What does this fold into?
Amino acid sequence: MPNRTKEMLAESLMKLLARRTLDKITIQDIVDDCGYNRQTFYYHFHDIYDLIDWIFAAQTQELIEKCRACGSLDVGV
It folds into this structure.
């Protein structure tokens, strides 16, 4: 279940980023959006940048898995 919590926090941040810049988003904004509290956020992440790192890693892994599934993961860019 911890990954689902991380996913919810990530979804909230992404939704908020569609409306305003990162410097205008607080941890409180994120947890209010998804119904958690600040303690839950800090249990999973050190700060907002840690959450951004997690989002990037999760999306990168998802992309790699999709490429492997369709057999188009070539070495190099």
